[in-house]
Specification:
Residues 26-136 form the Dihydroprymidine dehydrogenase domain. It comes from Algicella marina. It holds the Pfam family Fer4_20. GO terms for molecular function: 4 iron, 4 sulfur cluster binding; metal ion binding; oxidoreductase activity. By secondary structure, this protein is an alpha/beta fold. The chain folds into three domains: 2-135, Orthogonal Bundle (Fumarate Reductase Iron-sulfur Protein, Chain B, domain 2), CATH 1.10.1060; 150-243 and 415-489, FAD/NAD(P)-binding domain, CATH 3.50.50; 250-412, FAD/NAD(P)-binding domain, CATH 3.50.50.60. It contains 19 helices and 18 strands. It has helices at residues 22-25, 38-45, 55-58, 66-74, 78-88, 92-98, 110-113, 121-135, 158-169, 186-189, 198-210, 227-233, 262-273, 279-282, 300-311, 332-340, 417-420, 453-456, 461-489, and strands spanning 150-154, 173-177, 214-216, 236-239, 245-246, 259-261, 292-296, 316-321, 344-347, 349-355, 358-359, 366-367, 372-383, 389-393, 399-402, 405-408, 412-413, 448-450. Helix 4 (66-74) runs antiparallel to helix 5 (78-88) and helix 4 (66-74) crosses helix 8 (121-135). The protein is globular, with a radius of gyration of 24 Å. The termini are far apart.
């Protein structure tokens, strides 16, 4: 009987939770997708073909047991579905909302390849865990036994939180150090509420704290506490700082007022949503209200910036990207959402400089506030080393886009941690990312591990979660081995 609930993809069409109308959602920062009803979630989960080689699972960085929890959902066994989902993913309610499923699990769904439309995996994952919270199935961590060993984690982003969860479940004493006043990293201050409402993150933080994890917030390593002191205080340390240093733009006028970093713009907006005092927002410096906004970049951060600008009441919002739509790294689903909300994508364009209110003493360098972006038109030429076509400038086709606010969303680079932390023994790559063993995540410093973007470069939340879980497993094995050796020596 249960099996008859599956393999429904031939008779049941693909459906996603309904989106709020663009005109409605433009006026707030609430999530745009409504919840699945129970019957619809069961129906959509039943479209899974339960294939012998589940490519959805293979292409998920966490290798989630997707066919299993889809089957359980179709059968109405939601608590079991949640337990299976939680077994491999520390934050399924977050991944269900912000993972680019079109590039990962859903993009590799077998029935999608046969023309029947992918299973809506992300929406079902979100439904399962939101139901688990509603029903009280998500409990604070209760270790079977307490361990005396302690682990310090630098960074309260998704990787650090995932590692903390696994380590605490094994009874270790866990302390997380973070420079910000709230835990969550980019989940709190980088990703807008219309993609990830903040109570989804804060309730998980509260659950971790209730389980015995200690948070030391407003704590800047290298200033408030030294890296050496953290190493001295703990049996193992995980570096999970992420990458926050923005890539810069050059060209005439690059230092004009009104040209801002994406991280500053998004953080100000998110802080405002918490009710914080944000002088840079109130003054208009980091506020798009009534302005012609130009965002430069093509990733998910750029998508967040254009859609935030719309909600802040921008006069116009345009995004410049040097390649075409097909070659854009950001989620195509996000592009569609942004277009519905009135964002204009200007493909095959790149900034060459900026126009200001006036020119300086040399008569050429723009001064004052930004008034426009000098734009070069591009075309796609021969493929580069990665196989993507390289953009080339079309000479003589430059023009100016009006702009009162320019947001740089060109990606992030790592900070110089060895210098900031006075730890020359912390080895880094030529890109400035921390060197760590691919399997164990251990660095050149004994007992020090590194995970997430500070190792990979700017990447997806789901990869940070995977790294955090793998580092935790390495630490558990290492400390268990040391404990066994200690017992044997007695």
């Amino acid at each position: 009987m249960a099996q008859n609930r599956m393999l429904q993809f031939v008779d049941v069409a693909r459906a996603t939770p309904p989106k709020r109308a663009a005109e409605e959602r433009k006026g707030d920062f609430d999530e745009i997708y409504r919840e699945f009803a129970a019957e619809k979630a069961n129906e959509q989960a039943g479209r899974c073909s339960q294939c012998g080689v589940p490519y959805c699972q293979t292409h998920c960085p966490l290798h989630n047991n997707i066919p299993d929890w889809l089957k359980l959902t179709a059968e109405g066994r939601l608590q079991e579905a949640y337990e299976v989902s939680q077994a491999t993913n520390t934050f399924p309610e977050i991944c269900g909302r912000i993972c680019p499923q079109d590039r990962l699990c859903e993009g590799n769904c077998v029935i999608e390849q046969s023309g029947h439309g992918t299973v809506t995996i992300g929406a079902v994952e979100k439904y399962i865990t939101d139901t688990a919270w509603e029903k009280g199935w998500v409990k604070p961590i209760q270790p079977g036994q307490e361990r005396k060993e302690s682990i310090g984690i630098i960074g309260a982003g998704p990787g650090g939180l995932a590692a903390a969860d696994m380590l605490r479940r094994q009874g270790f004493q866990v302390t997380i150090y973070d420079r910000y006043d709230r835990a969550g990293g980019l989940l709190i201050y980088g990703i807008p509420g219309f993609k990830l409402e903040k109570d989804v993150v804060t309730r998980r933080n509260d659950q971790l704290a209730a389980g015995g994890i200690t948070f030391k917030l407003n704590c800047n390593v290298g200033e408030d506490i030294s890296f050496a002191e953290i190493r001295e205080a703990h049996d193992a340390v995980i570096i999970a700082t992420g990458v926050y240093q923005s890539r810069e733009l050059g060209g005439p006028g690059a230092r004009l007022n009104g040209i801002v970093r994406a991280i500053d713009f998004l953080t100000a907006s998110n802080r405002k949503s918490f009710g914080d005092e944000v002088p840079e927002y109130d003054s208009g410096e980091l506020n798009a209200d009534g302005k012609n906004v130009v965002v430069i970049g093509g990733g998910d951060t750029a998508m967040d910036c254009v859609r935030t600008s719309v909600r802040q009441g921008a006069k116009s919002v345009k995004l410049l990207y040097r390649r075409d739509r097909a070659n854009m790294p950001g989620s195509q689903r996000e592009v569609e959402n942004a277009e519905e909300e009135g964002v204009e994508f200007v493909w095959l364009t790149a900034p060459r400089g900026f126009v200001g209110e006036g020119n300086g003493p040399d008569g050429e360098t723009p001064t004052g506030s930004v008034k426009g972006v000098r734009v070069a038109k591009m075309r796609l030429g021969a493929p580069d080393a990665t196989g993507r076509q390289s953009p080339e400038v079309i000479e003589g086709a430059d023009y100016t886009e009006d702009a009162d606010l320019v947001i740089k969303a060109l990606g992030f680079e790592p900070e110089e941690l060895p210098k900031l932390w006075d730890e020359p023994g912390l080895e880094v790559t030529r890109w400035g990312t921390v060197k760590a063993d691919f399997g164990t995540k251990e660095t050149a410093l004994p007992g020090v591990y590194a995970i997430g973007d500070i190792v990979r470069g700017a990447s997806l939340v789901v990869w940070a979660i995977r790294d955090g879980r793998e580092a935790a497993e390495s630490i558990i094995q290492s400390l268990n081995a040391k404990a066994a050796e200690s017992v044997a020596a007695e």
